[in-house]
Specification:
- With about 300 residues, the protein is α+β, with helices and mostly antiparallel strands.
- It is rod-shaped and about 140 Å long.
- It has 2 helices and 12 strands.
- The chain has a 6-stranded antiparallel beta barrel with strand order 1-2-5-4-3-12. Strands 6-7-8-11-10-9 form a 6-stranded antiparallel β-barrel.
Length: about 300
């Protein structure tokens, strides 16, 4: 019975609502609802807008982070390509320099090698190269820079790499020489003041009779403080700053005529028969990246008589 009454009530209410709606009697009710809800809706919107901006900012920041990461990866790739191109250009220049050395020494066999390490302790001056016994490298072989200047010798040779003792190492000693300027020819004697005969002009000396260039020999030893010290020079030798220092070939460990460097300073020692000179190496030994091993020269390995 209750169900019947409930159904009748629902039908009646629905019928009355339909009739009132058709006659627009209930229009003020939605208007009142909208009027009451508008401030609440505006407040909710004011609260929701910052949250919406924050949410959009988080999304946008994520996009920016991804874009920045992509840009960084692109820049890193471009930098790697530029570095590779620069290294390739550098290698071309080094090979061209090595080719120039080869052309200037046509009878020598040179093997190019890359520097892969430096002696880290600071107590020695040595570098490692990526060539070894398998490439024909042997201990004692002479090593040049890419411009043909003496760098050092192979001190240890292994299967795939080797250590080079630089000429600035304290254990390095090179028989060297300094070529002096040719001597000036002597003038013919002049007449005395009381002589009536005028002084004859000195006859020019033929070039073949001019004094040949003389050389002074010494030992170039490595020095951690002063690069290279050229010792055992005669005290009366006319050596000046800037004079070139070459290998003398004595001892058979180095070919003759390789450039070591130039005289930077002279040290006169009282009551000593010898003069000492500080030599500036011709090669930039602290920045070596490519060297040339003179594999066609075999050190003499002389023993004491």
């Amino acid at each position: 019975m209750r169900v019947i009454w409930w159904l009748l009530t629902v039908v009646a209410v629905s019928t009355i609502s339909i009739v009132l709606s058709e006659q627009r009697t209930l229009d003020p009710v939605p208007n009142i609802s909208l009027t009451l809800a508008s401030p609440l809706e505006g407040g909710i919107r004011d609260i929701a807008n910052p949250l919406n901006d924050l949410f959009n900012g988080v999304i946008d920041r994520g996009d920016l982070v991804r874009e920045n990461q992509e840009l960084k990866e692109t820049i890193a790739l471009l930098e790697a390509q530029i570095a590779e191109q620069q290294d390739a250009q550098k290698r071309v220049l080094e090979l061209e320099a090595a080719l120039g050395v080869k052309q200037s020494r046509p009878d020598d066999q040179l093997l190019a090698a890359n520097v892969i390490a430096e002696e880290p302790s600071g107590l020695k001056r040595a570098i490692a190269i990526d060539r070894g016994l398998s490439d024909g490298i042997d201990e004692g072989m002479v090593v040049l820079s890419k411009s043909g200047v003496l760098v050092g010798t192979v001190s240890r040779a292994y299967q795939d790499f080797a250590w080079i003792r630089l000429i600035t190492d304290p254990d390095s000693a090179v028989n060297a020489q300094v070529n002096l300027a040719p001597g000036q020819p002597q003038s013919a004697p002049t007449a005395s003041a009381g002589s009536a005969t005028p002084a004859a002009s000195p006859a020019p000396t033929p070039a073949s009779e001019a004094s040949p260039p003389s050389s002074v020999r010494g030992v170039a030893e490595g020095d951690l403080r002063r690069d290279i010290v050229l010792d055992l020079l005669p005290s009366d030798s006319e050596i000046t700053e800037g004079t070139l220092v070459l290998t003398s070939g004595l001892g058979g460990n180095y070919p003759r005529g390789l450039l070591l460097g130039s005289v930077k300073a002279l040290e006169q020692r009282p009551q000593s028969p010898f003069t000492r000179a500080t030599v500036q190496p011709a090669a930039e030994l602290s920045g070596l990246d490519t060297v040339l091993v003179l594999i066609s020269f075999t050190p003499a390995r002389l023993t004491a008589p």
